[in-house]
C-alpha cells in the first residue's frame, strides 16, 4: 500500500491527539515506532493515524493506558474473541460505576456542608469544621 506520510504535527491534527501525546503513546509502545527521515523526523501513515484515533476514543471513554494496550492488541488481532474485549469493557463499566457512586457520595456530603454554611461575615464555617475534624481522625 502506498501510504501518504505525515509529519507529527499533521498526524496529530488528523487524529485529534496532540504531538506531545503522539510521542508519549509511541514511548509507551501503544503506537509502534514509525519510519524516520534521514534527518530523524517521524513520519506517520494512515494506519498510525487510525491507531491514534482508536487510542483517543478509548481515552475519551476513560480506559487506562494498560486497558488501551490490551484493546489495541485485540483490535489488531483478527483471530480475537469478542469475549476478551467484552471482559475488559465490562470491568471498566464496573470501575466507572464504583467511581460514580463515590463521587455522588462526595457531592451529597459537600452539598450538605454548603447548605449548613451561612456564607456570611461570621468566622464559623461547618465546611472547615468538617475538614478539620476529618483531618484529626486517623486514616482508615
UniProtKB/TrEMBL annotation:
<feature type="domain" description="HTH merR-type">
    <location>
        <begin position="5"/>
        <end position="74"/>
    </location>
</feature>
<keyword id="KW-0805">Transcription regulation</keyword>
<dbReference type="Pfam" id="PF00376">
    <property type="entry name" value="MerR"/>
</dbReference>
<dbReference type="GO" id="GO:0005737">
    <property type="term" value="C:cytoplasm"/>
</dbReference>
<feature type="coiled-coil region">
    <location>
        <begin position="86"/>
        <end position="113"/>
    </location>
</feature>
<dbReference type="InterPro" id="IPR047057">
    <property type="entry name" value="MerR_fam"/>
</dbReference>
<dbReference type="GO" id="GO:0003677">
    <property type="term" value="F:DNA binding"/>
</dbReference>
<keyword id="KW-0804">Transcription</keyword>
<protein>
    <submittedName>
        <fullName>Cu(I)-responsive transcriptional regulator</fullName>
    </submittedName>
</protein>
<dbReference type="Pfam" id="PF09278">
    <property type="entry name" value="MerR-DNA-bind"/>
</dbReference>
<dbReference type="GO" id="GO:0005507">
    <property type="term" value="F:copper ion binding"/>
</dbReference>
<keyword id="KW-0175">Coiled coil</keyword>
<dbReference type="GO" id="GO:0045893">
    <property type="term" value="P:positive regulation of DNA-templated transcription"/>
</dbReference>
<dbReference type="InterPro" id="IPR009061">
    <property type="entry name" value="DNA-bd_dom_put_sf"/>
</dbReference>
<keyword id="KW-0963">Cytoplasm</keyword>
<keyword id="KW-0238">DNA-binding</keyword>
<dbReference type="InterPro" id="IPR011789">
    <property type="entry name" value="CueR"/>
</dbReference>
<dbReference type="InterPro" id="IPR000551">
    <property type="entry name" value="MerR-type_HTH_dom"/>
</dbReference>
<dbReference type="GO" id="GO:0003700">
    <property type="term" value="F:DNA-binding transcription factor activity"/>
</dbReference>
<dbReference type="InterPro" id="IPR015358">
    <property type="entry name" value="Tscrpt_reg_MerR_DNA-bd"/>
</dbReference>
Amino acid at each position: 500500500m502506498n501510504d501518504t506520510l505525515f509529519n507529527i504535527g499533521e498526524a496529530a491534527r488528523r487524529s485529534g491527539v496532540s504531538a506531545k501525546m503522539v510521542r508519549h503513546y509511541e514511548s509507551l509502545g501503544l503506537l509502534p515506532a514509525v519510519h524516520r527521515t534521514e534527518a530523524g523526523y517521524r513520519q506517520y501513515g494512515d494506519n498510525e493515524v487510525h491507531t491514534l484515533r482508536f487510542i483517543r476514543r478509548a481515552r475519551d471513554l476513560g480506559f487506562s493506558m494498560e486497558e488501551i494496550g490490551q484493546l489495541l492488541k485485540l483490535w489488531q488481532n483478527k483471530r480475537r474473541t469478542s469475549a476478551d474485549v467484552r471482559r475488559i469493557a465490562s470491568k471498566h463499566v464496573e470501575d466507572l460505576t464504583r467511581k460514580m457512586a463515590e463521587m455522588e457520595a462526595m457531592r451529597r456530603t459537600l452539598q450538605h456542608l454548603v447548605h449548613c454554611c451561612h456564607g456570611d461575615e461570621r468566622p464559623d464555617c461547618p465546611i472547615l469544621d468538617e475538614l478539620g475534624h476529618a483531618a484529626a481522625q486517623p486514616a482508615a
